[in-house]
Write a structure and sequence with these properties.
Layout (H helix, E strand, L loop, with lengths): L8 E5 L4 H12 L3 E6 L12 E4 L5 H7 L6 E4 L7 H4 L5 H22 L3 E7 L29 H20 L3 E6 L2 E2 L12 H11 L5 E5 L5 E2 L2 E2 H12 L7 E3 L5 E2 H12 L4 E5 L13 H7 L7 H19 L2
Parallel strand pairs: 1-2, 1-4, 2-3, 4-5, 5-6, 6-11, 7-10, 8-13
Antiparallel strand pairs: 9-12
Helix pairs in contact: 4-5, 6-8, 6-10, 8-10
């Protein structure tokens, strides 16, 4: 731990969520004093934050309470979000746009008033144009491909707006911002059921719940492609970006692209189960998506390298325990 990190103050907004709760733990290990803020405490572990404010960042009064001093670093992860079943159904578009947009407007104003040291914003690969992700074998997710803009979801549009919100404050008010576009972050202690879980957690749950010789369901034909990044590598990328002079936006994701069918087969292999797959209709998102890591490698001298199997093995073990505990 660098001596300069001792006694530094960090604020994690969205600290009750999956990435936020892991980030709090990482910052504490590095010697930071940490305040966490969220609608709720983490679901699967006690927060390691020195202070934790339970409240709604859409509320300006709560935001003033949360950002009441000049923090050395602020991490803005708070958002209304979920997996494909939540984002791509179309049923939650108005709430996603309103809630996340309002949170970011409140946060950036308070950070400007307090003159915070450095502000990180977690954007998403969902900002990339749909027309660049029609070929599952050759998606284009290079950072400069974001414009002309054409995200396939309102979630993506809100993230793109908020990128511009923070970047405009960087230009007009000298705010030190750092922006990363996350690509499907997963790992233990994340949502694994209920409709807001991401694909790796959903797949691990389905395999864990299935009996040997049974079947699991997958939305679509399973030939759509994605890449998935384990939480530890996500945090490493975030910390390296925050310690750099590069503003971004930059992709933080794995470039190990797999089909959803292959993801399911990997979970089965980790579980040592023989199962069949039944393809059903459901919300899908774009046909192909993969992290382009050329820019992060160039700017930070680093990129994620952990094999997907390693992360799935850790995640499956944790979710299997959750499934077992949930049985009557």
């Amino acid at each position: 731990m660098a001596q300069s990190d001792r006694n530094r103050k960090a604020l994690v907004l969205g600290a009750g969520g999956f990435i936020g709760s892991h980030l709090v733990s990482r910052l504490k290990k590095e010697g930071y004093w940490v305040r966490g803020v969220d609608l709720k405490q983490p679901d699967f572990s006690k927060s390691e934050a020195d202070e934790f404010i339970v409240g709604d960042l859409r509320d300006q009064a709560l935001c003033r309470e949360a950002i009441d001093q000049k923090f050395d670093e602020v991490y803005q992860l708070a958002a209304d979000m979920g997996g494909a079943g939540f984002i791509f159904s179309g049923d939650n578009d108005a709430e996603i746009m309103h809630n996340s947009g309002l949170i970011n407007l409140n946060v950036v104003e308070r950070c400007k008033v307090e003159g915070v040291g450095r502000l990180f914003y977690s954007s998403s690969a969902c900002i990339y144009p749909e027309h660049n992700q029609l070929d599952p074998d050759n998606p284009n997710c290079a950072e400069e491909s974001a414009y002309p803009a054409n995200p396939d979801s309102e979630y993506g549009w809100e993230k793109l707006f908020s990128e511009r919100l923070f970047l405009s404050h960087h230009r007009n008010h000298g705010m030190e911002v750092r922006i990363a576009r996350f690509h499907n972050i997963f790992g233990p202690m994340g949502t694994w059921c209920g409709g807001r879980e991401k694909a790796p957690a959903a797949m691990c749950r389905k395999v864990a719940e299935a009996e040997e010789g049974g079947e699991i369901e997958i939305w679509g034909d399973g030939k759509q492609t994605r890449s998935f990044l384990y939480i530890d590598e996500c945090l490493e990328g975030v910390r390296r970006l925050m310690q750099s002079d590069f503003v971004g936006p930059v992709n933080i994701g794995s470039d190990e692209m797999v089909t959803i069918n292959a993801l399911a087969e990997l979970a089965m292999d980790v579980a040592d189960k023989k199962l069949s797959i039944r393809h059903i209709e459901g919300p899908l998102g774009v046909r192909g998506r993969n992290s382009d890591n050329q820019l992060i490698s160039e700017k930070l001298g680093w990129k994620p390298t952990q094999p997907l199997r390693d992360g799935i093995a850790s995640t499956y073990s944790w979710i299997e325990d959750c499934v077992t505990a949930a049985k009557p």
